[in-house]
Structures are given as C-alpha cells and as structure tokens.
Design brief:
The protein is an alpha/beta fold. It is 34% helix and 23% strand. Strands 5, 6, 7, 8, 9, 10, 11, 12, 13, 14, 15 and 16 form a twelve-stranded mixed sheet that branches.
Length: 362
Amino acid sequence: MKRLGVLCAITALITSCSFTLPGAPGPHASSFWAHPVPDTSFLCGGRHFVLDKEITWATKEMRETDGYITFPFTYQPRTTGNKKNDSIRGELLYRKGKEPRDLVVLIPGTGENISTEGSAEALAERGYDSVRFRSGIDIFDERLLDGKLALDEEELRGFIRIGKQRIRDRICDYVLSIHYFVLRMHYNRIGISGVSLGGIFAPLIGHQYPRTSSVLVMISGGDLPYILQNSTEGKIVSTRRRLEDLFLGTPERMWSVMREELQEVDPLRFAENTNASQMRIIANLWDQAVPFHSATALRDASRRPPLEVVIFPPGHYGSVLLLWVPIIRWMPLGSCPLCIYYPTYGKVQDFNVDFLTQTMPR
C-alpha cells in the first residue's frame, strides 16, 4: 500500500484535513483515477474542514469484477492513540459504465465486518456506486473512570462530553469522506443506510450533509439516553453500572444530565427536518440492545416515516442472521396509526435494495 502525505492539523477553531491519491493503478481502472482531486472546503458540526489531499488507497488490494471495481481505503483525521476512533476504513465499489452516478453509503454497527456484508455488492449490481465503511467507534471509555471513588456532576458532564465529542468527530469523518467522493465523482444523489450504531449515525449524517436524498435506519433509532439507560448490550451495561455507582447525585439527576448533554448528538434533535417519504425505519420488536422504543421515538419525531417491524426473538445480535436467512418483516400500508401491516420476506441486502430502488430509482 502506498501512503502519500497525511496532513491533519487541528486547532481550537479550525480542523484542516488533506487528501492525497496515489497514481493510477492501471488502465483497467483509468476512468476512476482520471477524475481530478477536489480542492474545496466543507462545514461540519460548526467546524471548517479543508479538502484537498488525504485518503490512503490500498491499490494492491483493489479487486475487479465484470461490473465494478472495489477500492479499499483508509482515512485518518487525527491521532489520539485510540486506533478505532482515529481512523475509518472502507471500500468504494465503483461501477464500470457511464454517468449519471448515484452513491449509497453503508454505515456499520459495532460488528463492522458483518452488518453490511453483501449489501454493497447487491447495490452495485443494481446500478449504484457504494461506499461500505468498516469502522466502529468507542464512545465511552471506562478507563477514564479508573481510580475514581466518586463523580460529582461536573465530572459526570466531563465524561459524557468526551463521548459526545467522539460522536461528533465520527459524524464529520463520515461526512467529509462522503463529500470527497461526491466532489471527485460528481454523484447526483446520496443514500445513507445504517445498521445498529450505524443506524444512529445515518440520520445525523443526513442532517449534516444536505445532498442526502434518502436515509434507511435498520435495527436502530433515536433517544440516546433511553438506549443507554435500558440497553442490555454488554459495554453499555458495564458503563451504566460504573456511573451509577460513582455518581454522587440521584439516579434521576444522572439521567437528566445525560439527556442534557447528549441532546446535541441525538437523532431526535434533527428529526423534524426529515423528509418522511425519503426515510424508512426497520426495527426488531424483540430488540433489547437498541430497544424498540428508540425506533418509534425516531418515527414520531420524524413526521412518521414508514416503520417496518421485524419480530425476531433472538433480538439485536440475532438479527445478523438476516444477512443469510430471509425473514418476515411487516410493512405498513397507508397512513399510520391507521395503517395496515402486511408481511414480506427478505434479508438485509433486500432491505437496502428495496428501499434505495424506491427512493433513488435508477
């Protein structure tokens, strides 16, 4: 892998990130590499990013099929010592053929190599270029609590704010990367599809990036404090118990502080600006990691886009079986709450293809 100059200077008010592409890998991919590198700026999360040079392309790992070329890449906007949070990895599936071009962005959950498996290929076969990110994120770091005997309110806020900033950073990492591909390849429409944690990021990215045409939220939703307070996911449970044990105030006050601090990065905050006809939420009624309430909360705050229901007792992590096993999902017909639900079959790849071909038809 050839790595050309990486520059990411972070100041108090301005973050400047540069992108550099290596030389063309060969004539079979010349149409992709012929596009000029963009040189422009972008505002994300109140911070100003300059795009001109920086992404690292793994040209030796490039793969080619009859219909598209897969370009692995890495983007590292910062160096804090947490490898998972400092960089994002992914693959661009670039179709062979003429413009116009549309781009679908797949945002993973914590199972970063599982939750989007097969979807990019299925979408490429339907005529869409795809970016499949393969990067999760550590939001709350329990190690920051080591050695502490108690937490007062300001210390609790400080801990939450570190996690909140990590969410902001990752949103802008995604947005900046998407913007780079849009400027370079002149994409017309952008679709965002997120699973689990990626489903929380998807509407936030859609809000930050105005060119987004459609948003699909799968096995996820909004109301972050509710998720943190009720989830059975192992890391969340562990962090929750540590905070409850250390906080000097009442549990009610702790969750009030949590809600105040996380409001800025909660999908519910921006949901009312959503175009309901261009959004869909798919949730598992039996989900205990991201409770079903989160999906209904996001639906109700988002001008009631369609909410499809999966009834799958294995719950959140059992939903990975949907990558290989078709399952019934109940789709609304008509305007809810007076809608009628009817069953259909499909896997996660089918969920993506069905939604994108409806909201961004080729």
